[in-house]
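Collaborator request, handled under Task 6.
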Amino acid sequence: EVQLVESGGGLVQAGGSLRLSCAASGFSFDDYAIGWFRQAPGKEREGVSCISPADGSTYYADSVKGRFTISVDRAKNTVYLQMNSLKPEDTAIYYCAAKVGVVPTLEPYDYDYWGQGTRVTVSS
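Structure tokens returned to the collaborator:
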């Protein structure tokens, strides 16, 4: 059974940092791509970053480029999202997701499995 469990969310002041974790189980990183998504109140879910653990390729939404970094620890079956220089507009519930196939995308509809989400609140 595929499981994704996010952690690391919280309340932080603007300019601060958080590191989100996505602990994965039930599948091989060789066969899946992992994405981070977020959904703010009243808005659609949007792609933030994604990674192919198989080859290390990464992609970022323009809104987070230069501030967020996605990485994978294959020994721990965990994908991280390091978020620096946080802004109030980064406030959302953040989800990690897995898609069959190694090509990562920022499109939520491409993903097959989802975690329960972790809330990030950035105060001004």
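The cover message to the collaborator said: "The chain has a mean pLDDT of 96. The first strand starts at residue 3 and ends at 7. Please let us know whether this matches your experimental observations."
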